[in-house]
Amino acid sequence: MAVAYRAGAQFFNNGGALTATVDKPAGTASGDVLVMWAYQHDGTNPNITWPAGFTEISELAATGTNFTIGAAWKLAGGSEPSTYTISNGNGDSGTDQYVGIAAFTGAHTTAPFPGGSFSIGSAGSPDVLTLPAGPVTGTNGGMLFGAWAVKCDSATTPASATVPGSMTSRGQGQTSVGAGGFSFGTWGTEALSATGSTGTRTATATRNPHGFYGYVLMAIEPAAAAPNAPIANAGPDQNVLANATVNLDGSATANGGAGAPYTWAWTQTSGAAVTLNDATAENPSFTAPAATSTLVFSLVATDTAAVASAADTVTINVSGASDTAKPISDITVTGWTTSNGEDVWEVTSDGSDTTYAISPDTPTSSPVRVGLNELNDAISTDTVTVSIRARKVDAGTATATLQLIEGASTVIATSSAQALTGTTWNQVNLVLSGAEIDSVTNWANLRAEVTVTAAA
C-alpha cells in the first residue's frame, strides 16, 4: 500500500503567546500517521514542547539566532482530540510560531521515517531566496514531506514562499507584520515512485531583507507488506454412505508463504457432530452419522513463519438408510407377461431418509418399475396378481408399497404397505379387483411401481 496524504491544517502566530494550537486534520482515522512540524523565532533559544503522544523526529536550534525548527509524529488512535497545542518553553511574548500538521494513510506504523534532512541558517538579503533541502533516502510507494520557514526582519512588504515544483503545496502563509518583522513559509508533499536518494528539493522565498530560515525534509515509509500466507485446501466435497469412514484431505494446500511443514487445524462448522481422530493432522478421518445429513469442515494451515491461511471448507453429504428394490426375475401374472421384468431401477423415497443411495443393482435414477403387456383380455372375473420383490440393503426395517399405473400417472391400484425384513429379498404382491381391472383403458401402457420406505 502506498502512502497517501489525507488532510492537513496549519497555524500562524506573531507574538503575544507562548503556545500555538492547530486543528486535527479533517477525516483523521485510527492508524493514520500524524506528522507535525513547527518553527519558532524569538525568545531565549526557543525550544519546542510537542503535544502529548507525539515523538520528536528532530529539532534544530541556532544559538544566538533565537530560531528553531523541528518535527514530531504519532500514530492516530481511535479517539484523537480536535486540536493539538505546542509551546515554547524558553520563549517570550514576541515569539513567532508557524505550525503545520498532516495525516497520512498507508504509512509504516512503527518506523515511518527512514531518514530526514533538517537545517537552519542565515538568509542574507537576495530578493529571491533559494532553499535547497535534502537529499534523503526514500522508498517506492512512500511520501516526501517538506516544510520551509523564513524570518523577515522588515516590518513592511509581505512575502511569499513556494514549494519545489515536484511537490504539491499543502499550505503557505505568514504571520502578521509587527515592529520586529514577520515570519512566512510553505509546506508540501510528493509521492515517491523509486527507492533510494531523492535528491534535493528547492523551495523559493521572495522578500528582502531576510533574516533566518529553516527547513524540514523527510521521507515517510510505506506500511510493511503483509507476509504471504499459505493457501489452505480442504479437498473436494464428498458424497458418502451412512456409517462410512470418511477421510478429510488437506494435502492440496499451496505454499503461499514460508512453506511446509504446516500446522493443521480442522474444525467442524455445521452438521451432526462427529469426532475427528486427529483435528491437527493433514488427513484426519471420522465415522459418518447413521442418518442423512450434511457436514461442513473448515481447514486453516499455518506455515513455518507462523502465518495462518484463510479458512477453506469442505462439505460431506451423508446418505442415510439405503433401500433398493427390483422386479423379480420370474414375475407371473394370470394372462399377462412382463415386457422388461429383468430391468432394475432405484427406489423412490418418502422423504424421511431424503435420498436413497444407488446400489450396484440399481444404476439409474428412475423408480423401481416393471412394464406389463396384456396377452389375453383381462376381465373383472379374472384374478390378477402382480408380484415384485424388494429388499433393504441395511439391516433396518422398511415397508414396500406396490402400485399399478397406466400412462404417466393414472394409478389403477395400490397395495397395502408390506413389511420388508432383514436384508433378504421379499415378495410384494398386488391383487387387482374386478373394478380395477375394468378401469384399465390401455393394457399396453401399464407398469408396476414399488416404493420402499424406511421405518421412522
TrEMBL record:
Gene3D superfamilies: Immunoglobulins. It comes from the Bacteria. GO terms for biological process: carbohydrate metabolic process. Signal peptide: none annotated. InterPro entries: Ig-like_fold (IPR013783), PKD_dom_sf (IPR035986). This is PKD domain-containing protein.
